[in-house]
Amino acid sequence: MRTPLVTVILPAKDAAPYIGTTLETLLRQFDDPAALKLVAVDDGSSDGTGDQMRSYAERFAHAEVLVNPRPVGLASARNQGLAHVEGDAFCFIDGDDWMQPRRLQVLAARLRELGCDFLRTDHVRVTGSARKTVRAPFAWRGVVASPRDAILPSDDTTMVDYPYAWAGIFHRRIIDQGLAAFPEGLFTAEDRPWIWRLHLQASSFAAVDAPAMLYRRGIATSLTQVRDRRQLDFPRALAQVVEIVEQDAEAQRFMPKVVRTALALSSHHFVRSRRMAPPLRREMRGSIRDLLATLPPADVARALGRLEGSKRRVLARTLREAGHAR
């Protein structure tokens, strides 16, 4: 049996209503089924997710199912999958999403053709019966570029604002270089430090067109919907971004982008925290205050001058408490 070309890492927790669709579409990715390896991670599910993984694994030429008795979170589960990658390329998919047929066959061919470290693609956002194409924010398609050159400008949406791990494919040398792993223990926003490290330290990438990745929104169990302690990982994740950039030789060039992102996301999370229980909301506010206190005052002042008035008002009190008086 041939060695697989691509390994798909599929972590999921309590995804039984959706994961059958995910797995079925993975069976339609290559003309030769042996080109694909499935690494499924049942992250402490309490429904039939693991049973479906094991049932479908029998239909793949190459498959492993890993089981966590208790949930370790998406970041750690993805890292578990990285240890089982075979072939020259790998990618991620979540348990409530799915792919159009032959997506990975197209992406594997483009990765070989372009010879770069990773590829990024658009995706389709699915909310109920509505679908919307979300473009990867890079103007040049099929052109190999430096990932660092896709980080700026600070005030525009760029590739570090498009952190979705499943929106692309990666050469395995990304693993060998230590750039594929996610921060252990983060239950949300784990993709933020991951995408920054990738764009600062990888050598080459391209944005390409391919059959679609379809991403479900509005699911009650999704971390974009829940408002529990896992949301407190957001300030920790952004603090890691700050640390990664501070250690870069061009920290002064990229820090304004980090600051702009931190302010915008902090404002967003403040608004969302209004639906949290009061003790959790206070803890979120304190964590954001501690994050903002680490940001360079000059960069904060410049970013605030360009930030929408509603976001400035939401942040005003916490910025003062963090030492950024206006």
Draw up the topology in text:
Layout: E1 6-12, H1 16-26, E2 36-43, H2 49-57, E3 62-68, H3 74-82, E4 89-92, E5 98-99, H4 103-114, E6 118-120, E7 123-127, E8 130-134, E9 168-171, H5 173-176, H6 191-201, E10 205-207, E11 213-216, H7 233-246, H8 251-273, H9 278-293, H10 297-306, H11 309-321
Parallel strand pairs: 1-2, 1-4, 2-3, 6-10, 7-11
Antiparallel strand pairs: 4-9, 5-11, 6-9, 7-8
Keywords:
4-stranded mixed sheet, 326 residues, 16% strand, alpha/beta
Short summary:
This protein is α/β, with parallel strands linked by helices. The protein has helices at 16-26, 49-57, 74-82, 103-114, 173-176, 191-201, 233-246, 251-273, 278-293, 297-306, 309-321, and strands spanning 6-12, 36-43, 62-68, 89-92, 98-99, 118-120, 123-127, 130-134, 168-171, 205-207, 213-216.
Please tell me about this protein's structure.
The protein is an alpha/beta fold and 326 residues long. Helix content is 40%, strand content 16%. It contains 11 helices and 11 strands. It has helices at 16-26, 49-57, 74-82, 103-114, 173-176, 191-201, 233-246, 251-273, 278-293, 297-306, 309-321, and strands at residues 6-12, 36-43, 62-68, 89-92, 98-99, 118-120, 123-127, 130-134, 168-171, 205-207, 213-216. It has a 7-stranded mixed beta sheet with strand order 3-2-1-4-9-6-10, sandwiched between helices. Helix 6 runs parallel beside helix 7 (233-246) and helix 8 (251-273) runs antiparallel to helix 9 (278-293). It is globular. 42% of the residues are buried.
